[in-house]
Amino acid sequence: MVSLNSYLMLGAVLFSIGAVGVFTQRNALIIYMCIELMLNAVNLTIIAFARFLNSMDGHVFVFMIMTVAAAEAAVGLAIIISLFRNKATVNVDEINLSKG
Amino acid sequence: MQLLIFNAFCVGAVVSALLMVTTKRPVRAAMSLVATMSFLAGLYVLLDAHLIAVLQLIVYAGAIMVLFLFVIMLLNVEEKEGKLAGKTMLLQAFATVVVGLVMVTMVGLFKANGSLGAAGDASDAFGTTKAVGQMLFTEYLLPFEIASLLLLAAIVGAVILAKRRIDDSGTE
To answer: ipTM of this model?
Structure first.
């Protein structure tokens, strides 16, 4: 039987990899994918807790997180498309319109 | 047996996640993310969350990643997008170290606070479509309806943001 700690550690490792990706990548699309990875790591943690506490409320939470992730992906990608149309780049270093 | 499957999925998920954050090509990153999500779906099955495992495959690995791939193809981004300046490299190294320290702290907390006892055998209904659906339509009915409104708002927002303005479409 796999212990709860193993699942939590895997969740922590995946979340950290996603966070490193957000900091190191310069392509807006890949940054979005890293955010999705972080959401997935949190989902794994919630599902693991749901199983070990023997309560199914966690499954409903994960369902809601998936809904929000889908909405976020649709709107975020639309923003990236209109950004690309205006600046012809998706490199976040060159997108500095609101820099003071 | 369960430990063996867990270890295999675990290694697969971490390796494909690492591949994703180290590559410069968006398509390669998307494919690695699909692999990570599939491995996570396997882990959900190990945790008796059957409905969530199927949803993970259909919604995440299917719908959301196809959306990503469509956008990558639409934008036709050149290879040079990944080039980095010297100053950014330093910042990146710093960020990586900070995130590593946060991770070490998290793992330390798990070790210090102990664990819940081993889960017993789940009941037959645990994590099935019927059981989760029953909760969704009774206890969590209001959040469910709000989620549908959120999706509607996202659809309208995505169309408004991504469509061309009529005056710059060039066909007036």
So the answer is: 0.91
From first to last of the 100 residues of chain A, give the pLDDT tens digit. 788 888 888 998 899 899 888 888 888 899 999 999 999 999 999 999 999 888 889 999 999 999 999 999 999 999 998 888 888 888 887 888 777 6
- Listed in sequence order, the residues at least 6 apart from A74 whose beta carbon sits closer than 8 Å to its beta carbon are B67, B154, B155, B157, B158
Closest residue to A91, CB basis, from B56, B81, B107: B81
Q: Is residue B144 situated within a structural domain?
A: no
Q: Which of A15, A61, A77 to mutate to test the interface with B (most CBs of B within 10 A)?
A: A77
Q: CB–CB of A62/B52 below 8 Å?
A: yes
Surface-to-core class of residue B161, CB atoms within 10 Å of its CB (0-12 exposed, 13-18 middle, 19+ buried): middle
Q: How far is CA A66 from CA A36, B49, B87, B110, B155, in A?
A: 10, 14, 37, 26, 15
B166 assigned to some structural domain: no
Asked if residue B158 belongs to a domain, the reply is: no
